[in-house]
Specification:
The chain is mainly α and about 375 residues long. It has 13 helices and nine strands. The chain has one domain: Glycosyltransferase, CATH 1.50.10. The strands form four sheets. It has a three-stranded antiparallel sheet, with no helix packed on it. Strands 1-2 form a two-stranded antiparallel sheet. Strands 3-4 form a two-stranded antiparallel sheet.
Length: about 375
């Protein structure tokens, strides 16, 4: 496959992000409605993705206006640390793509401190009874004190990073204990994963799996599989534990084996047989592509080439089939599914889909 399409895709990214940066400023887009992004708060789990996108494009263009906007976003996200009762396990997404990136690019000690504070908050959500990091605060009458979700595999790098930065293994130990729990309690026999597993928060006993954003408790939410694929690859990258790499490969095999012809999954891999009209989730494809490229960078050349080729096929399809007509949308990738069962951002652009699409394009560019 030639790289002409990749160059065109990257040009499209730069044009779009520089254009929307004038519209969004230092705000926090989530998903689109009628082609326009709905903005959310700095407390939202998606808050880090816009500054993360700005840093990705800045790393190539050195457009200082993008840097300035990313810094302004980080300042707002850092304020949530002082309103911590509203925070959740997704501080890894929030601070990893804003504060850590700002520290890496600018050697900003305040941003580093914010990320370390967030890591301490995430570590504080660890329940030794059950060895899991609790996901969300309680909402209304829902008791989430025993809930863990597959998305948290992507928050663990904040803990690994903190252990490396301050030479303190406690954060890494918590991350590994959670990852080991996911291996035991979330993985289904075929490489698919549950979205939510509920534990008794007092005893740590597993109570049940819950559907969450999937079709059913034992189905296979495609974005959840992508989080697991990428998350286990990152846990292997930081720890060298082969069990994590094997899990990443197992989920990758399931993900790739169940893709439709255009390489972009439906929002759940186990929808009823008559569900061909169900929406796709371009964000799941983008996340998986970046995760596959991560695996490719971690394994031997022959094996790695297969993962790289699989990622390239997904990205090629996303560029050709899921950016067509994006001129009418503020997003990069069309046809994402945020939360199908609650009809939230269905057949929409999603800021996290855009982020991982751009991240994967950059990885492929330099692979």
């Amino acid at each position: 496959m030639d790289n002409v399409w990749l160059e065109k895709a990257w040009e499209q990214v730069v044009d779009k992000i520089e254009q929307t940066s004038h519209t969004f400023g230092a705000a926090f887009p989530n998903g689109t409605e009628h082609g326009r992004f709905v903005m959310t708060s700095a407390h939202d789990w998606v808050a880090g993705f816009w500054p993360g996108l700005l840093w990705l494009v800045y790393s190539e263009t050195k457009n200082e206006r993008l840097q300035t906007l990313a810094v302004a976003c980080e300042e707002q996200i850092s304020q949530t640390l002082w309103e911590f009762e509203h925070l959740h396990h997704d501080v890894g997404f929030m601070f990893g793509l804003s504060s850590i990136k700002q520290y890496e690019h600018l050697e900003d000690e305040a941003a580093k401190r914010h990320a370390l504070m967030a890591a301490s908050l995430l570590a504080g959500r660890f329940n030794p009874a059950g060895s899991f990091i609790r996901a969300w605060p309680n909402w209304g009458n829902e008791d989430h004190s025993g809930w863990a979700i597959i998305d948290c595999m992507m928050n663990l790098p904040l803990l690994y990073w903190a252990s490396e930065v301050i030479a303190d293994p406690r954060y890494r130990h918590i991350a590994e204990l959670h990852a080991d729990m996911v291996l035991k309690e979330f993985m289904q026999g075929d490489g698919s994963v549950h979205h939510i597993v509920a534990f008794d928060p007092e005893t740590g006993a597993r109570v049940e799996a819950l559907a969450g954003q999937g079709y059913a408790a034992d189905s296979a939410w495609s974005r959840g599989a992508a989080w697991a694929l990428y998350g286990f690859a990152l846990s292997y990258k930081y720890t060298g534990k082969e069990t994590y790499l094997e899990a990443a490969k197992q989920v990758a095999q399931f993900f790739l084996a169940n893709l439709p012809a255009d390489k972009v999954p439906y929002w759940d891999f186990r929808l009823p047989k008559d569900s061909d009209d169900m929406p796709r989730d371009s964000s799941a494809a983008a996340i998986a592509a970046s995760g596959l490229l991560e695996i490719a960078s971690l394994v031997g050349t022959d094996e790695g080439l297969r993962y790289k080729q699989a990622a390239e096929e997904i990205l090629f399809s996303l560029f050709h089939n899921y950016t067509e007509g994006q001129e009418e949308s503020q997003g990069l990738l069309l046809h994402g599914t945020g939360y199908f069962m609650k009809d939230i951002h269905v057949d929409a652009s999603l800021i996290y889909g855009d982020y991982y699409y751009v991240e994967a394009l950059l990885k492929l560019k330099y692979a």
